């Protein structure tokens, strides 16, 4: 039985990795887009190892014992001949990836962290502003990362009087407050960092709903210090489909960053 568990586990894991990385975009719920080739290679390798093991042991992977030993249970939850029965639980993550891919991280994770901006940018040696002026357009689409950085650290106040557009998922706060949020990853979902912008002026849509909000900067705290926090007075809220890559907090076009 132990060989069955090992061989089938390799095959299921390999097929699961290929399913989420080669046939679908589900891998983007767990890792960055650039890791796709590594996931595909890992899936192929696992399937190859499982196939070699299956061919070596013969089908259905159980060879009869030739030493006269008999399988028996010792009363402690495992068989002397086949290893611990709990090994079957290893199939759970493999089958979950294959048949029931967990959703991307959302409001449950974001609500565990306080709203905070990225670290203060390094000073410019040339004397140029760290935050260049926003393009002279009506509504400026921005990433939550860029908006948060400007709202907290931009002492030139380039956001003042400008109408911006942000996209993210809804995270409920305390006492009826809510946030537009994004989770940004460096490698995988395990290192996700939260970006949250508090919203003023509208009731909250359902938690985890993806929305695009339009509004103006709501100054909170002293800009240039840790007391400041990103917030927005909104004039419009629109429900939008969840993006293919939920951790990619970038905007193409004017105001992107």
UniProtKB/TrEMBL annotation:
Pfam families: DUF1980_C. Signal peptide: none annotated. It comes from the Bacteria. The chain crosses the membrane at residues 39-55, 86-105. Keywords: Membrane, Transmembrane, Transmembrane helix. InterPro entries: DUF1980, DUF1980_C, UPF0703_membrane_permease. Residues 159-247 form the DUF1980 domain. The keyword Ribosomal protein does not apply. This is DUF1980 domain-containing protein. It comes from Streptomyces malaysiensis. The lineage of its organism: Bacteria, Bacillati, Actinomycetota, Actinomycetes, Kitasatosporales.
